[in-house]
Amino acid sequence: MLPALQxxxxxxxxxxxxxxxxxxxxxxxxxxxxxxxxxxxxEVMLQQTRMEVVVPxxxxxxxxxxxxxxxxxxxxxxxxxxxxxxxxxxxxRMLHAAARAANGVVPRTVEKLTxxxxxxxxxxxxxxxxxxxxxxxxxxxxxxxxxxRIFGSEDDAWGRAQQLVDAxxxxxxxxxxxxxxxxxxxxxxxxxxxxxxxxxxxxTRSDALPVAKPKKxxxxxxxxxxxxxxxxxxVLMRRESGPLMNAMYHLPHGDTSLLSGKPxxxxxxxxxxxxxxxxxTRRIEFALYTATARVRASxxxxxxxxxxxxxVAHPSYVAKALRIWASRPPSLPAS
Length: 335
What we know:
Layout: H1 7-24, H2 36-46, H3 51-64, H4 68-73, H5 76-83, H6 90-101, H7 110-113, H8 121-132, H9 141-151, H10 157-167, H11 171-184, E1 219-228, E2 235-240, E3 248-250, H12 256-259, E4 264-279, E5 282-295, E6 301-304, H13 316-326
Helix pairs in contact: 1-10, 1-11, 2-3, 2-8, 8-11, 9-10, 9-11
């Protein structure tokens, strides 16, 4: 194990990271101009979501809300609709609340950024360094792993990150370079040490020190889902709050006996198919039924035109169910 990096070593390591990033960075839409608002949106979306998944959602979101003021002026329902399918919907709510609190301007410093709703130390550091090139450190899972391997220790990751950002020439490139190396080269299980720009400076290049994360216990669920249409082909949905519901539009679900006596009473059922869906620590198998029902007037329920789902906030399992329904064989009735 090598000794801790000295001051001159920090400068050398920082330059290597910056040079590597300049040559190998992935072309991403928020890197085109480093507009602070676009950087902010990208960082929030990238929390707990893979890069390749985020890009199309990011492009759709900033097209719908091109500026911070446009996002602040939007309704929560519109914001949730634009976020539909990306998951972890609390991120969208906090981003919306922070946009309203920011008064049209993305703060330049970590101190001011962390006064906004939902903006923690990492997000503030990412915005300050990437958008404004401030000397602010960042530590996410990828960066923590790279730092642990370089220094040969998991201790004081934020302090190590600050040392490197103080020693670098361009904080924007340094921080993004650390994240890219962690994502593409210094991976958790099979690090590509032979092509790593830091291989001659890394304290653990031969033993690849991991940063262990405790595994979360998962639960398996099976839920019946009902797709009920009217003569116009509209689908019956309900906006629901509570855990996992996120005030979005959901299809009727659960035991049909639980629906008795409510504005909706299921009359007939036909099993259309099953599909699997994962939400945080829950593995769900949905049994999708087409159904006929007696529906009484109620504020809870709404007939939704499936052609306009892009303007309706709905979770990705609903989109999956609608795709299965739309691709059903002609012999199956549409309820």
